[in-house]
Amino acid sequence: MVSTFNSRASDAGLDGHAVVGNLFDSEPYIVDNESGEKIDGQNFLDNPKFKDFDVCIVGLGFHHFDNCVRCLRILSERVKKGGVVGIVDLLPMEGVSASFEISPSPTGNVSMPIL
């Protein structure tokens, strides 16, 4: 999926690319796009290249995380001020209350406060 995204983004002339990784593992890692090898993630967590995103999105996988609240906090630390963390999921998440307040923004988009 990541390689398809990167190919399409490149074809569209977009600057940037997606990476595979796990910020939530007890030993965080990313996967080198060229070699496919895991790279120690502790160093990349502090790398400015992996901060200040406009958007972080988890699609149909959030319910797989062991600690959804921790994951949401980590993702929220990765977006720049005013950035968006988007979660799309169809299954309930154990231990996460459905009491998040969701309110329309002035632009008509839906926003959810970041924990």
Description:
The protein is globular, with a radius of gyration of 15 Å. It has 3 helices and 7 strands. With 115 residues, the protein is an alpha+beta fold. The longest helix has 11 residues, at 68-78. The chain has 2 domains: 1-50, no CATH class; 51-115, no CATH class. The model is unreliable at 98-115 (pLDDT under 50). The strands form 3 sheets. It has a 3-stranded antiparallel beta sheet with strand order 1-2-3. The protein is 23% helix and 26% strand. Strand 1 (20-22) and strand 2 (29-31) form a beta hairpin.
Write a concise keyword list for the protein shown above.
single chain, 115 residues, alpha+beta, 2 domains, 3-stranded antiparallel sheet, two-stranded parallel ribbon, 3 helices, 7 strands
Provide a quick synopsis of the model.
By secondary structure, this protein is an alpha+beta fold. The chain has three helices and seven strands, in the order αβββαβαβββ. It has two domains: 50 residues, no CATH class; 65 residues, no CATH class.
Fold blueprint:
Layout: H1 2-11, E1 20-22, E2 29-31, E3 38-40, H2 41-45, E4 53-59, H3 68-78, E5 79-88, E6 103-104, E7 110-111
